[in-house]
Amino acid sequence: FFQERTGNYQITTLEYRPPEVVAECIVTPACDIWSLGCTLFELATSEYFLHPESDIKTDVQIQLYDQMIACLGPIPNKLYRDGNKYSMYFNSDGSYFRDVEHGKDILTRLISYGYSKDEILLFNDFLHIMLEYDPKKRASATQCLQHPFLKTPLS
Fold it and tell me: What global pTM score does this model have?
């Protein structure tokens, strides 16, 4: 395993790719936490958290950012400015280059699956610490293991 890596940026399956990898920033273990959050969402819902489609005209990397923004809200300005592909996706002021309408957030997406309110709220919070845009603020594996979702008996 590694601590940081530059170079080949196609390190994850498209549906689990973290935002910093799309911009080709330095890759850290936080990428794995993002991917885990996507995987857990899929396990709970049988749906991908992000699902870009290669058969439509919009580039799949742009679709990833669009879907992230629709579900998680805007990407903080200039967060990925050190990425090799930053200028492809972000304006000079750091804002995303496209307008994206807010869609269904994680909580809204989870509600339709029949889990209890307490389970949904805990799981939503758990996913949010893993799907944090800023890899430096994203939960570590140790922090994930301490989350109440993993410590609370569920019905």
Answer: 0.89
